[in-house]
Design goal:
Keywords: CBS domain. The chain has 427 residues and is α+β, with helices and mostly antiparallel strands. Helices cover 30% and strands 23% of the residues. A hairpin with a 5-residue loop joins strand 2 and strand 3.
Length: 427
């Protein structure tokens, strides 16, 4: 194996995994170690890699030909695509050891920052060294970092010890919200709730939108109500409404009352629409401009970084007022048209209104048919007075057309028998 003899595992998180042909097959998410009956450090038996569609598989350490900070390369052979399942005598190093409260043999208390694995002359990998940050008072500077042998640390073999979240969050920091949501699903419920609570409001709002409904509800319930209301304020109104729909009406009312009125109002409006209609799946905050706005102004608006690609793909043109429900709906302008027009031209001169808008009660199958027919990324939704009340985007349609449990990794269909050999997801 062409690789350093010692590798710190937290530094491997997110590193790309390549097959012998140089094709990427996934990214490293953790290392699997097997506990031993003696006092010897646990043996590292493999890595956990995340593949497309959020499937996590086991990569035997014997299949890996090289490990470096930029890539993990596999040797030849058939890749076992069965979903990884941890065995009773195993531990996931990053998930279970990072932030563990431990004690050095000197008596100094601290928490685990990283764990190194090391290869001996016989080719066997084991957990060898532990990076431990000294525990200090909150007013003191950060504690000293010790890198010590495994057997100099007490508390590593005891499950259920209290832990913080800082070091695990540092490993997860650069993940996309969907990948972070996937990682949270692998954690025990209590640990998942701890990590979720430690995220800032905006980050947690993004992650909740990517989780299955039952996980969303459990995480929200673990927060105090004021914090839960703050997180709901950071969510898109349609996502917040979907989440609140999973709660009993009395709890909905409590959280809505705790939200800022201007944040709660669009959510209340969305909750009034019947499930499975345009009103229930639309966003109430599309990009809206008046007809006398210029192309340059429209381009500036759709460049705003907080807008999703589907929302930023078009500008809706209405009479004042410009917040939903708006004044009379006039039409829409796609961003490609904006790129082709002089910056000083007015939107009123290039607006397109040859496609009938949706009504709030339009059922989801009809929305899907019409968006597919006209190759639309988003469609306007108007009320009986032709006022714009929102827009249905293609991601809204996908979210509500897929099976209800599509975000739940445990509900993803298993691979065919041809690609799922026996062995519990092990090579």
């Amino acid at each position: 194996m062409s690789t350093p003899n010692r590798v710190y595992i937290a530094r491997l998180a997110g590193v790309a995994v390549f097959d012998p042909n140089g094709d990427q097959v996934g990214r490293v998410r953790d290392a699997v170690a097997r506990m031993r009956p003696t006092q010897r450090p646990p043996e590292v038996v493999g890595l956990v890699a995340e593949m497309p569609m959020r499937r996590r598989i086991f990569l035997s350490i014997n299949r890996i030909t090289s490990i470096d900070p930029d890539a993990v390369v596999l040797g030849s052979g058939t890749l076992n695509l069965r979903r990884f399942e941890k065995r009773p005598n195993e531990l996931l190093v990053l998930q279970e050891l990072l932030d563990r409260r431990v004690q050095l043999d000197t008596g100094q208390a601290g928490s685990v920052v990283d764990v190194a694995m090391e290869c001996n002359r016989g080719g066997e990998w084991s957990l060898s060294r532990v990076a431990v940050r000294e525990q200090t008072s909150r007013l003191a500077r950060r504690g000293h970092l010790h890198q010590v042998e495994w057997d100099r640390v007490r508390g590593l073999g005891t499950l259920g010890e209290s832990r913080g979240t800082a070091n695990l969050l540092a490993v997860l920091e650069d993940m996309r919200p969907a990948d972070l949501a996937n990682a949270l699903q692998d954690l025990p419920d209590a640990r998942r709730n701890e990590v979720a609570a430690a995220l800032d409001d905006e980050r947690l709002a993004d992650v909740l939108s990517e989780l299955p409904e039952h996980d969303q509800v459990e995480i929200l319930a673990a927060l105090d109500r004021e914090r839960a209301a703050d997180v709901l304020e950071e969510m898109d109104p349609d996502d917040a409404a979907d989440l609140l729909n999973e709660l009993p009406p009395p709890e909905q009312d409590v959280l809505l009352d705790l939200m800022e009125p201007d944040e709660a109002t669009p959510v209340r409006q969305l909750l009034r629409y019947a499930s499975g209609t345009a009103g229930s799946v639309m966003t109430s905050e599309p990009v809206i401009l008046p007809p006398d706005a210029t192309v340059a102004e429209a381009l500036a608006r759709i460049r705003e970084p907080q807008l999703s690609p589907a929302v930023a793909a078009q500008v809706f043109v209405t009479r004042a007022p410009l917040t939903t429900p708006t004044g009379r709906y006039l039409g829409m302008v796609h961003f490609q048209r904006l790129l082709r027009e002089p910056p000083a031209d007015l939107l009123g001169g290039i607006v397109v209104n040859d496609i009938d808008p949706l009504r709030a009660g339009t059922p989801l199958p009809e929305i899907t048919r019409r968006m597919a027919t006209y190759d639309m990324v988003a469609m306007p939704v108007v009320d009986r007075n032709n006022r714009l009340v929102g827009a249905v985007t293609v991601d809204d349609v996908l979210d509500h057309s897929l099976p209800r449990d599509w975000r739940d990794r445990d509900a993803v269909a298993a691979p065919s028998a041809a690609e799922e050999p026996p062995g519990g997801g092990r090579d």
